Amino acid sequence: MVGISSLRANSNATIEATITAISDVRDVTTSRGASKVADATLKDETGTITLTLWGDDTKKYSVGQKIKITDGWVKDYRGKLQVSMGRSGTITVQG
After folding, report:
1. Most buried among 17, 29, 50, 86, using CB within 10 Å?
2. C-alpha–C-alpha distance, residues 43 and 62, integer Å
3. pLDDT, tens digit, for every residue of 25-47?
4. pLDDT surpassing 90 at residue 1
5. What is the pTM of this model?
6. Domain with 83 in it: what CATH number?
7. In angstroms, rounded to a whole number, what is the distance separating the alpha carbons of residues 39 and 52?
8. What are the C-alpha distances in Å from 46 to residues 4, 18, 30, 42, 49?
9. What residues make up the domain containing 58?
10. What digits encode the pLDDT tens for the residues 12-21?
11. Long-range contacts made by residues 74-80, C-beta under 8 angstroms, separation at least 24?
């Protein structure tokens, strides 16, 4: 398990963190069609990162929940690191 501060762009990561904020859900159109997206802020003892939530995931989580992201995809978006589920990632709510 790695801390948020040690994550690097263009790699997979498994992290545990607490959701400290979730943005309003927005409607977007992607190359795959219309979808919903929201940004959750995750924090652990080493730092913070934005988790991008898509589709039904935008309604599944709430501020204060501790989650584990397994095999999430880390990317650089406008100079800041973000994590999303990519092709194989999963989110599990902890305790």
Report:
1. 17
2. 14
3. 999 998 989 999 999 999 999 99
4. no
5. 0.91
6. 2.40.50.140
7. 5
8. 6, 12, 33, 11, 10
9. 4-94
10. 999 999 999 9
11. 74/7, 74/8, 74/9, 74/10, 74/11, 74/12, 74/13, 74/49, 75/9, 75/10, 76/9, 76/10, 77/50, 80/50
CA distance 93 to 38: 18
Residue 44's identity, in one-letter code, is D
Residue 93 tokens, joined: 């709510």
Q: Looking at this protein, which amino acid is placed at residue 31?
A: S
Strand segments (E) across 1-95? 11-22, 26-30, 33-44, 47-54, 66-77, 80-84, 90-94
d(CA 30, CA 92): 26
Q: Is 4 left (phi over 0), alpha (psi -120 to 50) or beta?
A: alpha
Hunting for tokens 């999303």 — which residue is that? 84
